[in-house]
GILT-domain-containing protein
Amino acid sequence: MEKESLLPQTEEPIPRQVPAKRFSRYHGFAFALVLGLFWLSGTWKCGHRHTHKHAHEDTASMVPLEIHIMSKCPDARDCIEKLVVPAMSNVSDKVDFKLSYIGKTTEDDGVLCMHGQTECLGNILELCAAAEYPDPKIYLGFTRCLSLRYQEIPDTSLIKDCALEYGIEFEKLNDCASRDDGAYGMGLLRDSVTRSAELGVKTSCTVRLNDKTRCVRDGGKWKDCDDGSDPEDLVKDINKLYAKAQGWIYV
């Protein structure tokens, strides 16, 4: 029997604003919209403006670079498009890159996502891309592609288009998301959300360099970017840290 896809089959765009909802592994990836609604406490931030390790043989001397996002957050889109991807195109061989997500775990093994179940599924699909294709050039590119049309996540047509663009097999994503009746994908999301919470990260998008907050994109503005928010500023910092790890003198 052909495996049923757990991604929505509708081509209709998902509404831009969806109330925060619980996404539980007990519902698998049926992606049921009958899940109860739970409003956020307001402690996470995705500022709307209203008017696996790096795939490298040795990461010991690589510079840790991590971004914490929500898949349906415009600040995450801007952060990836304007800072992270341009920087990574220059220094990806020097970076141990990690993509993490912001949300809230629940006592029944579920996860609360700020923009609803559609965001939870988007987060999981992006985590699955990273799990199945650990090269950041692939899974970060896929994540960027989705973020450019974040309002439509998780439309099947969007997922397929972005998967095709970056050489990702759509069935691999679906298998990952639905494995063990959805428990595997939910586990990826819970682990990622837990990591962000333990690090005290609550704002999408937060860029952490060498285990410290380097820059934040919030409400359409850059914040806490003392050393600059341009890609060349981030590249310069990464090169300095990499040279130090190698025992070189950075000029």
